[in-house]
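User: Could you walk me through two proteins back to back? I'd like the raw sequence and the structure tokens for each, with a short line separating them so I can tell where one ends and the next begins.

Assistant: Of course. Protein one, sequence then structure:
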Amino acid sequence: MNVLRPRAVLESLRPYPAERTPVDLDLADNVNLWGMPPAAVRALTDPDAPRPSAYPPADPMELRVALADYAGVRPEQVVTGCGSDDVIDGALRAFAAPGDRVACCSPTFSMLSHFARVNDLVPVQVPFLPDGGLNVGGLLAAGAEITYVCAPNNPTGAVVSAGALAELLSSARGLVLVDEAYGEFSGASAVPWLQGTRNLLVTRTLSKAFGMAGLRVGYGLAAPEVVRALELVRGPYRVNTLALRAAVAALREDLGWVRRHVLLAVESRERLVPALRRLGLAPLPSAANFVCIPVPDPARVGAALLERGIRVRVLPGVAGGAIRVGVGPWEAMERLLEALGEALR
């Protein structure tokens, strides 16, 4: 009798932890706690909106043009996906063969190593420098076909210096993938390096600053030949009909709303850090819309916060044990601070 068995590597992998028990205040996913741009809401509720009984465009040119205008590139430099992780997964399949290496500094976006292993690649994790900076020497020494950089880094919030990125782009042997899921909150971007650079892919998302996490719209920016390779591996219809309509509306009509709420998130972050210090904590420097906070016994602290209706991301292996909290309206941050003070006592 034949026995169906999945590939051996899957036996050592675990599903992405996505706890969805309802809570009053969810700070675990770093989404936009102010909601979605009003133009996107109108696009979804418009009675004349396209019906999802038909396929969306195989090549969503209207979205590509809107994203190109927003990012300051040409439409042929844009590829779209079902979230930026879809683009990252496609890049690993397009630019590395089974057995090749994918290098990153660790800790970073947890799905990067998962995607590497599922695609029969070898993840090589290099520690960050003691000051939290990118370990360019270690990344280059890995000799990887793909080098991944999260900027700002998730889960620590650390920035990537322009000098480190320049050295990496000039010396890396293969594709340099810069994940800018939280880029709007940092005020810096690798996109200007696309001018004259062929080995760079910048991935972004509308899940964070644009408040559209549930619609799963991501994109990549790269040289046209990189985009063409990604289009070959991703398949058609990666952005659904309603998400496409909402994304174009937000990009065309409501960038002012997006930018105002990015500033509000940064203001909350900058108020939250000194308040955490007054609780005796030492939050890591962050350029994102979240703060990573080393705490004693993070599992206990996370559970205590959950009892008070607040979910955070528990990170036992980061900075000796930490929690990560998304930032949002100050009223929500005040509630977090009160609950965190109680949990620590």
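----
Protein two, same layout:
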Amino acid sequence: MPVDERGAVIALQAVGVRREGTVVLDGIDWTVGQGERWVILGPNGSGKTTLLTLAGARLWPTSGSVEILGSRLGRVDVRTLRPRIALVSGSVTRQLRADLLAREVVVSGRHGALETWWHTYSAEDWAEADRLLEETGFAAIGTRPFGVISEGERQHVLLARALMSRPELLLLDEPAAGLDLGARERLVSRLGALATDPNSPTMVLVTHHCEEIPRGFTHAGLVRQGKLVAAGPLEDVITSSLVSTCFDLAVTVGQRDGRWWSRAE
């Protein structure tokens, strides 16, 4: 996997983002190493999704430098960079036709397309799409329209679609948002299995909740008011003190059997 000279998959230095005069991100220094699994937490409007958009080469910084997979934004043709990065996001859901079959949604990820008729897919491609659905226990929904399956099932389909492209970097923007307890736990379990698989790509997950941190994740970052207030090994960052500061609320956090929990004091 190509990386920069420091061995980083993502490297942000003094990054700032302004939109219509409003500071969205300010002075961000952040490095993600090869094979690391990061979770980014913070309140609504803190800049988490903007940070992920930068990492996905879908936004340029107003100031500072962004390097992804060894290439610097502004000096690389993003048409060659973006296919190496997979994004699971609500924005992708909104762009997909509701009458596409679930397995068509998955196979379209091979080329990052929104329609299967844009490309030709081999028998091996279709078999891989079916395998990815079967691997998570959702083979039965492969022939059902994407628009009628449950929200939890859609997230597994989108994750399979992301993996279909064999990415070097996997970005997940609040994939468990809006899911019921059962659907959330099935998704977190699947992400935990991916995190512990050495063949999985480097991963960055954005969430609001400690309970959604999967097993096997290695690092964490806390974002507040456009600043990265803490970043590093998971157990050094997900502490009661730092999380309380990030959310401006006294909370206690802890973990049991590799899963995290939090509650207000």
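The chain has a mean pLDDT of 92.

Let me know if you want the two compared in more detail.
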